[in-house]
Amino acid sequence: MVQNKTLGSRIFDIVNIIILTILTLSCLYPLWYTFSLSISVKSAANAGLVTFYPIGFSLASYREIMSDIKFFNSFWISIQRVVLGTGLSLVVMIMMAYPLSKSKRDFKARDIFMWIVIFCMLFNGGLIPWYLTIKSYHLLDTIWALVLGGSVPVFNVILLMNFFRNLPADIEEAAVIDGAGPWRILFGIVVPCSLPVIATVTLFTGVYHWNEFFNGLVLMSDASKYPLQTYIQQLVVSIPSDTTLTPDQYKRLSELSNKSLNAAKVFIAITPVLIVYPFLQKYFVTGIMLGAVKE
Known about the structure:
By secondary structure, the protein is mainly alpha-helical. The chain has 2 domains: about 5-60, no CATH class; about 70-290, MetI-like fold. The protein has helices at about 5-40, 40-45, 60-65, 70-100, 110-120, 125-135, 145-150, 155-165, 170-175, 180-195, 195-210, 215-220, 230-235, 245-255, 260-290. α1 (about 5-40) runs antiparallel to α15 and α8 runs antiparallel to α11. The chain is flat and about 75 Å long. It starts with 6 loop residues before the first helix and ends with a helix. Mean pLDDT is about 80; it is low at about 290-295.
């Protein structure tokens, strides 16, 4: 249906477009600036001359990062962490959120467990008890320390719980009449009907595991077991005091800048998220909005 817009509505649309354009550019500019800085020459980066476009052209920072075998090893560790951590967290969160979405009549201890969940979201035992717990289970220097250390994000559990609660009860009642049990209802009906919110919490959890670096720094004593974020966080440009470098190595180090190297770290770290996000973006708005509704 064609509608005639008034002058006020057209002005409103133009103002909205301008504001959204400014917000979009403000989000894209840091990414573009980081990339420009990472490929600029050392003198321009150190002098702070890079603003909107790269000055000169140098891939020395990327060569420095990717020439070390430890980079690929840490990249593989991060992939393992994301796959294992996201998969485990998703299973645990779904199995935790489903009973909590039931009424007190169906799950008598619901309120007790709900208070425990909320308390754990607001308070935690602190860094030292958390570290001692991981150590007591002999998980230090293993991939499971990174996976199990934060495997139950309570906020995501609440999103799932509220989404499950908003699903029509008639669907489950029909399944019960047909003889389906709780497991069949959960994984055969509830989960397929909850793809938007599941995609949303999958994105949240995957991004957390990919971007988090502190756990690797605390729980891994062997640098060869660092995940990617911890590895690149430790990279610095330094010239050894001993004169054992070849002329080519001196030339390579002379082209490096800590500023451009740090920019390259950031750009490499966010690239996988930028690749994955568009595939989950169509579920994101639906999942976060419906999962946040509370009756």
